[in-house]
Amino acid sequence: MTPLLDRLSNKTVLIVGDLMLDQFVIGSVDRISPEAPVPIVRFDHETWRLGGAANVANNIVALGGRAEAVGVVGGDSDGSRMLAEMAKRSIGTQGIVSDSARCTTRKLRVVTTRNQQVARIDYEHDREIETEIESAVVRKIQDLATSAHAIVISDYLKGVISRGVAAAAIAAARARGIPVLVDPKVPHVEYYAGATVITPNHHEAEAVTHMRIRSTEDAREAARRFRERAGSDAVLITRGEHGMWLLDGDRTEIELPAEAREVADVTGAGDTVISALALAVAAGATLSDAARLANRAAGIVVGKFGPATVTVDEMKRAEA
After folding, report:
1. Distance (Å, whole) CA 217 – CA 90
2. Of 222, 216, 211, 268, nearest to 242 (Cα)?
3. DSSP string covering 153-192
């Protein structure tokens, strides 16, 4: 795996999707409120992290690649913070469109010092983009795809991935002869026709295929049904503690056992999977080898709290 890791640098991935900010308000809890049966959190500190498609881009950079993001932020302070945080991490922001009619997507989590989540507040405007904003996003995709080695569609149902945007990303990838990878959401499964590979988790795969996935044979059949329904070349089903199942074309089917040693938080694990997968295929890896790399990355990132990243050095240490 080390030779592949060494080839990841200087490959550019274009990430199209729902950019988010994750805010963590952290404090201690030692009593229940006398006003209502809820814990009182004594504030200690707060942290901010990139989430959603922005976390995908962050993972690409952490693995040594170059990331260009296409998405939408609001004309608000959160939008300014998003752009500043991305620039700080050397993520390209030329493709980000500002829409004063929307708010920047932000998830505020109240968390104890023991990493127990007390509450979450979502600030979002999830209606699909249209008219001038959609056209602007499509133009950004077409412009930035010319220098990309792979394209990722990161769909969180927050409005950026419209039918037109998904079609533009897939068409741009096909025109360039580069792979396009999709981290999907069930209501948009018809949008992804023509994608190289789609990476549903097992809940999404069950919803699309109308079947339960309880065994390897179930995963095999679900992958086949999902590929037929979505119209993609390949499907990688992520199954949590049961690992992954890859269906690549009509011939290759691989089961990958989970590599996690300790699970702290699965938040953002799907972002890490598609980041590692995309960067590996951009570097010329087969989908099978890319899936093995993504499986290793996922095993590391679930040991961290919140949306997190994995580095090449961490991957090499895990291999040793």
Report:
1. 43
2. 216
3. EE--SSSS--HHHHHHHHHHHHHHT--EEEE--GGGGGGG
Of 126, 183, 271, 313, catalytic: 271
pLDDT at position 53, please? 97
Q: Mention every residue, 6+ apart, whose C-beta is less than 8 A from residue 299.
A: 258, 259, 260, 261, 318
d(CA 108, CA 123): 8
Q: How far apart are the C-alpha atoms of 262 and 244, rounded to whole Å?
A: 17
Q: Are 204 and 213 in contact (CB under 8 A)?
A: no
> Is the predicted pLDDT of residue 265 greater than 70, yes or no?
no
| DSSP-derived secondary structure letter, 11 | -
What b/e string do you get for 250-273 counting C-beta neighbours within 10 Å, with b at 16 or more? eeebeebebbbeeeebebbbbbbb
SS3 state of residue 271: helix
Active site residue 250: no
Nearest partner of 275 among 246, 300, 258, 298, judged by Cα: 298
pLDDT digits (tens, 9 = 90+) for 12-71: 999 999 999 999 999 999 999 999 999 999 999 999 999 999 999 999 999 999 999 999
DSSP state of 241: G
Tokens of residue 182, six digits: 């999709």
Q: Give the pLDDT band (50/70/90) at residue 118.
A: very high
For Cα atoms 257, 263, 267, give the angle at the middle one, nearest 5 degrees: 100
Question: Are the CB atoms for 252 and 246 separated by under 8 Å?
Answer: yes
Q: What is the mean pLDDT of residues 200-227?
A: 96
Go through the domains of the chain in sequence order and give each one's CATH number. Answer: 2-29+41-314 (3.40.1190.20)
Residue 313 has a pLDDT of 81
